[in-house]
Every structure is written in C-alpha cells, then in structure tokens.
Amino acid sequence: MSQSVANVKARVAAISVLASATMAAAKFTVGIAIGSLALISEALHSSVDLVATLITWVVVRMSDRPADDAHHYGHGKIESLSALGVIAMLYVLAGGIVVEAYSRLREGAPPPVLSALPFVVLLADIVVNLWRARALHKTAVATKSQALAADALHFASDVLGSFAVIVGLALSGLGFPWGDAGAAIGVAVMISLLGVRLGRSTIQTLLDRAPDGVSDKASEAISGVAGVVGIERLRVRMVGPTYFIDAIVQVPRTYPIDRIEDIKRKAQAAVSGALDDADLTFTAVPVARDNESVRERIMVIARNSGLAIHHVTVHDLGEKLTVSIDLEVDGNMPLIEAHDIAHQLEHHIVDEFGTDVEVDTHIEPLEPELPHGADSSAARVEEIRAALAGFASDGVINDIHSVRVRDTDAGEVVNFHCHAAAAMSVIAVHEHVDEIERKLRRAFPSVKRVISHAEPPNAD
C-alpha cells in the first residue's frame, strides 16, 4: 500500500479519536446530571467507540506494514481481528444496557430531569457523528479498510442512538416514565444489529470467502489477455485492502518461454486495472490447441526433449504421414549416441501420431557458435560486393546492397541484401539466392558463411 493511503487512514482515525472523546464526555456528564439511563448508555456506547477508535488508530498503522518472512500475505488480517474485538465489546455493552434498563423498569425508577441542555448536546452529537461517519466510510471504501469500516458503523449507530435518546427523553417529558429506559433498550438493539452486519463481513474475510464479484472480474481480465486459452482454476482471498489471486491458466504449448512471461505480465496489469490493489500468482499450463499443425506438434516434441531440429517436412499420403527432419547434434558425438537420440525422437513422434507415421531423421553436426570478429576492410567489402553482383547477372536477383564482411577465427562471414520481383515465390527466390551463395563460397574459399536477405524492390 502507498504511503499516501496509509497517511490518509491514520489521519482520519486520529480525527475520529478526538471527536469520540469530546462527545462521549459531554453525553456522560449531562446524562449523570439529569439521571438519564438512555443518555448514559449512549455515552458508554461512545466510550466504547473511543476505545475502538484508539485500537483502529494503532491497527491501521500495523496493517500497512509490508509482507515479511513470517507474514507472506502482509499484516492486513489484523484489521479483521480488531473488528471482531470491537464487536465483542459492543455486545457486552448492549447486554449491560438491557440489564440496567430492565432493572429500572421493574423498580419504577424516577424519570430524568429534563432541560434544553441534553437536547442541544444530542443534536450536536448527531451533526458530529454524521460528518465523521461519512468521512470514515468514504476512506474505508477507498482504502478497503475493515477497521475504518467498523468505526464508520459505530458512528452511524451513534446517530441512530442519539435519535432514540431524544425520543426517549421526549416521552419522559410527556409523562411516560418508561420512555428513558425504553430508549436505552433501543440503543442496545441498534448496537446489536449493527454488530451483526459488521461481524458477518469480518468473519467472511477471516474465513477467506471470495469477495462478491471479484472472481468474475479477475477471470474476465485474465481471459482478455492475448494468448490465454482458458482458466483451469482461480481462487481469491482478501487480506486487508489487497486481493490475492491464484490462477492456473492454460497457454499454447507451442509458445516460447519469453512469450509466456509476457502473457503473465499482461495478466497482472489487467487484473490490477480491474481491481486496483491485486497480487496475481500466475501458473501457466501448456495445452494443445485444436488448430495445431503437424509441424508445430513435432517442434513441441523436439523442444520438450531439448533437441534442435529444422527443415521439418510433412507429407500426407492418405493412409499415413511421412515426416523428414534434420536433427542437429554435437559434431564430436559418436555416431552410436547420435543414432540413439534420433531413434528416441522418432519413437516420441510415433507415440504422438500413432503407428501410421513414417519418420526419417537426417543427423548433422550442430552449427558451432562463431567467435566474435571484426569488420573487414572497405576494399575487401567492395571485392565481395562486386563478385556478388557478377553472380547475379541473370537479372532475377538484382541490386546487391548492404554488403558486410567480417573476419572471424572460423573464416569470413558475409551478409548482404538483394531485390527480387515481388510476385516471385519464396521457393524460386531461395533457389536463386542459394546459387549465388554457392558461387561466392567457391570463388572465395575463406568465406565460412553467407547470410542473405531478399526483399521486394519497394520494401522499406
């Protein structure tokens, strides 16, 4: 949680402490002076609120501490525990009020001595409590603080309780001696009802009940990320103001690791955008998609075996498939070991597609990593460029440009770009460029590798 949010919570709680202390003292003093049980009960209620607010002030500071080695989900649950403690105090108070009110009704205690003072105090109390209940509720919603929400409910109950005391005092003044005790019982009932409401939400949080609607919002946010196939499981729990979301998400098994990591980052951003304060645990499960091609499935098999393959060719002969693969292995590996690797790969492919598949594997040495080199001289680059232009004299491949030549311990590496007709097929372009590369290596034996890039004449 940000420092600014923590400061807001602490400041609102501090103001609430001052307001509780002032109004509780005023009501208690006047209640004793006129002998009103209802007003004394409301003062005691405000006193409990004062204790609760002091607890809240401490708790909101503790709950904002970051996660540590002993509290992996932070300290937010302490707000729920403090709310339960306050609820318990309220019920003890409500019970005491009911017992005392019943005793006064049974014994026929004299009504309170009325004057304008208690009504002025109660009206002032209503105004103050309406203001702070609204301020606390607004802050509790903004910060998702159960402790502040509990405080807001207490002050809302004070407003209702003050109205009840006014009614009770008015009834006593009109000649109904039971009015004051009846108002006190009304205050106790209101305290109990509000405690039930707060207790329900607090207990649900402690029992890790998923907040209403949060699972749907999180699922919608994750499902909207490109590359997500489906969601196997999604669990939500709330600790303080933070939603902790645990999701097992299906992703295409053909995707590389870096692309899956990108999906994770986008899913976290999407969930945070939908729920504000959210912590997503994203577990990716690779799955096969219905539209996977045979070549993609073979590439997955090789990748899962840690093998490098290329030139995968697949033919459907109706009654069977034929697959041809170039398998790269360490050039210094004995043939018997390389053959075992190829045989195992072929076995995995047969397991995937069934016995009606024919697999041929061409074993070749793995292309070694070329050492770092240095750019050749301008004269050497021009010599290679002129030779390439001459080899492309048939006009099919033209405009040899961007020629680069680099010297390495393994030999020269040549890169060049060229133009070919936009309507030519890739196969035709590849054949013509391959022929140019072969001619260059024959003419310059020191050239170890040639890398070409063919493009249409108007390409950017």
Automatic annotation (TrEMBL):
A single BP term in Gene Ontology: intracellular zinc ion homeostasis
Membrane disposition: Multi-pass membrane protein
Cell compartment(s), UniProt: Membrane
GO cellular component, one term: plasma membrane
Membrane-crossing segments per the record: 12-37, 43-60, 81-101, 113-131, 152-175, 181-199
Domain Cation efflux protein cytoplasmic as annotated: residue spans: 216-281, 292-365, 381-456
Domain annotation Cation efflux protein transmembrane: ranges: 15-207
GO-annotated molecular function: cadmium ion transmembrane transporter activity; ferrous iron transmembrane transporter activity; zinc efflux antiporter activity
InterPro entries, alphabetized: Cation_efflux, Cation_efflux_CTD, Cation_efflux_CTD_sf, Cation_efflux_TM, Cation_efflux_TMD_sf, CDF_Transporter
Keywords from the named record: Membrane, Transmembrane, Transmembrane helix, Transport
Pfam families the record matches: Cation_efflux, ZT_dimer
Family: Belongs to the cation diffusion facilitator (CDF) transporter (TC 2.A.4) family.
Protein name per UniProt: Cation diffusion facilitator family transporter
Organism: Rhodopseudomonas palustris (strain BisB18)
